[in-house]
Amino acid sequence: xxxxxxxxxxxxxxQRHLLDHLLPQFELQLNSGADxxxxxxxxxxxxxxxxxxxxxxxxxxxxxxxxxxxxxxxRSPTSPQxxxxxxxxxxxxxxxxxxxxxxxxxxQQRANIGIIxxxxxxxxxxxxxxxxxxxxxxxxxIHSCDAREIIEALPDASLGRTFILFPDPWPKARHxxxxxxxxxxxxxxxxxxxxxxxLRFASDDAGYVEWSLERFMAHPxxxxxxxxxxxxxxxxADWPPTRYEAKKLHGKPAFLRFLRR
Length: 261
Ligand SMILES: C[S@@+](CC[C@H](N)C(=O)[O-])C[C@H]1O[C@@H](n2cnc3c(N)ncnc32)[C@H](O)[C@@H]1O
Hints:
Blueprint: H1 13-26, H2 52-56, E1 90-95, H3 101-109, E2 113-118, H4 122-134, E3 140-143, H5 147-153, E4 159-165, H6 183-192, E5 193-203, H7 206-218, E6 222-224, H8 229-233, H9 243-246, E7 254-260
Parallel strand pairs: 1-2, 1-4, 2-3, 4-5
Antiparallel strand pairs: 5-7, 6-7
Bound molecules: S-adenosylmethionine.
S-adenosylmethionine (SAM) binds near residues 98, 121, 165, 243 and 245.
């Protein structure tokens, strides 16, 4: 069960065009058990066909979200993303990338790392696509759906880093079961992360920070790297602010880093 919104304000014709024509070039074709480096071979071509509206004044009518192939649908291992020589050395995962600002920054810093972003909120996905339209980044793949589907499909010890940045805090006690951080999820993340891999978690909700720390500290496979308060109250240099963080909705953010033992 996925909690939270899939859709926000109505999409423009151009945004729908990006979903229909650009998303397929970057969309992850889940292949259960496959080495995730295979998702990055070959890179997407990055060529974007101009929307009809821009070519001929076409209004965009008739293109609907429902015309899209189901996101995250399983494809055969013979898909182009499943074969060929690996073009990235390692794969990282960002869970709930929002508008994709952090994902873009990380991918631009590390051309040799393939970064998978999962985000079910369509309006967030189109923000990332708008950026990729003007500046294609070949080491990004998008899963426009629930991150848990990717995690389930990954083989053991296959991820080099995981980002969970400002996940929905679900502050009411009756909604705590909706929080992404649950012991069962930590078991799954421990399974798919490589020994020594880092998991980065940020939240500005003190209750969610406490909840997450309790669970990470109780989990035998994760070790918190902080040795003093400054370690988790100050932002590491390679951790740019996200759009949600910039809104400063709650308290001071905590930047937690855990290592997979
Ligand atoms: C509060 S927003 C933060 C977005 C972004 N990380 C940022 O800091 O700007 C949380 C995001 O997590 C996404 N999300 C919620 N559940 C998810 C899931 N199971 N898999 C992937 N993303 C999820 C939501 O759609 C939402 O965009």
